[in-house]
Amino acid sequence: MKKIILIVMTVVGVGAGAWYFFGPGSDMSGTYIGRNSRQAFLIHIVQGANGKLSGFYEKAALSSGGGSVNQYNFPLTGQRDDETFTITILPNGLAHFLVGSVSLSGLYYGASINLSGQGNGFAVNLNLTKGNSYTYSKYVAGLQNQAQAMQNMRAQRAEAERRQAALQARANAQALAAQNLQNRITTDLNLMTTARTTVAIRLQQLGSDAEKLRSETAKMQAALEQEAALGGPESGQGGQISAEIQQTNMNEADAIMGIHDRLVGIEQNGLPALLKYVKANDSMCERLNATLTTELSFNGPKAELDDCLKLENATPQFENQVQRLMVAYQNVFATWNAENGKQQIIIHESQR
């Protein structure tokens, strides 16, 4: 019975003093590692005589942008006191974020440690487990893969943005080209409307000019006959009529020459320009349609095409007007030659 009680007391004694298994009699030397989604940690501790600690602290962390991994390594010293210990992380003289030492307090649990503390803008609250540098390297490799994935994503995004910008620039250029073409169509449509009006006026003027030439000839012929009936230019009244015929011819000379000059102007300047204008607009709608449907991927009716069709439909009518103007010019010019010849004969007859 006593033996059984002794055994029980021994077991209870071991349980109550379990911390002592990890106390001064155990060596906490080893590598402790841990990680989170953005960082990996490694502390290598060597326990020496009288609980003195030495080693180093390593950290790998994704940059703020996530596209690279920053790695740090600092020496450390410390002191262990049973299950508690303190360590001091020392700056290594390199251009890292740590500019002064940082003191941390920790708890040792055998297979893991807990560290907490802060200083010089450097804060630590870690739960690390025993491991090895190989596993830590895998943690770092995982962070580097994350960073590479971020770089790839940014590169893809930049490329997509570049392509989108290029497409937008091309679309803007095409839209500008289409707008310029539309402006030209609108301008040409307005010009054609004005030109058609001008041609119509010219046709009416040419008709009036021809009639005026014939009318003047008829007046001069009637005056010549009246002069003859009164005894010719030698008689008093006949001579007066002869003078009037010559004066009338002189008065009408400028008007008659104006008709001639206008006809020559139409022949030398007006008609070639109008015909050239008509030919320049032959392919306007085809080019606009190609711009809208091919380059701008446009399908369906559009205001630009409506104006273009108006221009296209008006062009044959305008060309017909121009041809009529040419015929009218030729007719009036022939009339001018004929009537001017008749008038010169009448003047000569009135002076005999």
Describe what this molecule looks like in 3D.
This protein is of the alpha+beta class. The protein folds into two domains: 23-131, Lipocalin (Beta Barrel); 174-350, Methane Monooxygenase Hydroxylase, Chain G, domain 1 (Up-down Bundle). It is built from five helices and eight strands. It has helices at residues 2-16, 133-229, 236-280, 284-295, 303-350; strands spanning 30-35, 39-47, 52-62, 69-81, 84-89, 102-108, 112-119, 122-130. The protein has an eight-stranded antiparallel barrel with strand order 1-2-3-4-5-6-7-8. A hairpin with a 2-residue loop joins β4 and β5. α4 (284-295) packs antiparallel against α5 (303-350). The chain is rod-shaped, with a radius of gyration of 55 Å.
Task: Give me some keywords for this one.
about 350 residues, alpha+beta, Lipocalin, Methane Monooxygenase Hydroxylase, Chain G, domain 1, eight-stranded antiparallel beta barrel, 5 helices, disordered N terminus
Shape: rod-shaped
Structure annotation, total helices? 5
**How many strand segments?**
8
Number of domains: 2
**CATH architecture of the largest domain, please?**
Up-down Bundle
User: How confident is the prediction overall: mean pLDDT?
Assistant: 76
The CATH class name of the largest domain reads Mainly Alpha
* Terminus-to-terminus distance: 181 Å
Q: What percent of the residues sit in helical stretches (DSSP H or I)?
A: 55-70%
Structural class: alpha+beta
Radius of gyration: 55 Å
CATH topology (level 3) name of the largest domain = Methane Monooxygenase Hydroxylase, Chain G, domain 1
Low-confidence stretches: 1-24
